[in-house]
Write a structure and sequence with these properties.
Blueprint: H1 2-16, E1 35-45, E2 48-58, E3 61-68, H2 70-73, E4 79-86, E5 92-96, E6 103-105, E7 117-124, E8 129-134
Antiparallel strand pairs: 1-2, 2-3, 3-6, 4-5, 4-7, 7-8
Length: 139
């Protein structure tokens, strides 16, 4: 019976994403009910995928989310993240992380009535652009 209990826990962790190796963002800061919209975009550097960028909606706002992958973070910490919502104007909800962060949410933006996409970039602390990506546009 112990074996079944361990298997059930492992299955539950996998289903909820807690046992997965990729980020399973659940909710934006201050909004407990976000859902991903559009495709996931991927940031590459040196032929390797180093981060994921996603757009979410919830609490009557759009949110950008950028997650730096473990294999990149394991090799270096001399980077920052920026992420924002692109509505065809100046970046909205723009946020910048501290050094070596693993994830970053934008501020929520009041843009549900317009076409938007999430954007995220990784920058070395010396100011070099290591790569960026934008999700598909959602209207």
């Amino acid at each position: 019976m112990k074996f079944l209990g361990v298997a059930a826990v492992a299955a539950a962790l996998t289903v909820t994403g807690l046992g997965a190796g990729v980020a399973q963002a659940e909710s934006a800061p201050g909004c407990s009910s976000t859902v991903q919209i559009g495709s996931t975009a991927y940031v590459t550097y040196g032929g390797q995928t180093i981060a994921s960028v996603k757009q979410f909606k919830g609490c009557d706002k759009n949110w950008a989310y950028t997650y730096v992958w473990d294999q990149f973070r394991d090799k270096r910490t001399d980077y920052t993240i920026d992420t924002y919502i692109d509505a065809g104007t100046d970046p909205l909800g723009y946020q910048v992380s501290g050094r070596g962060a693993h994830e970053l949410w934008s501020s929520g933006t009041n843009t549900l009535g317009v076409c938007t996409q999430a954007a995220g970039s990784i920058w070395s602390t010396s100011g070099n652009d290591l790569g960026g990506a934008e999700t598909s546009k959602r209207c």
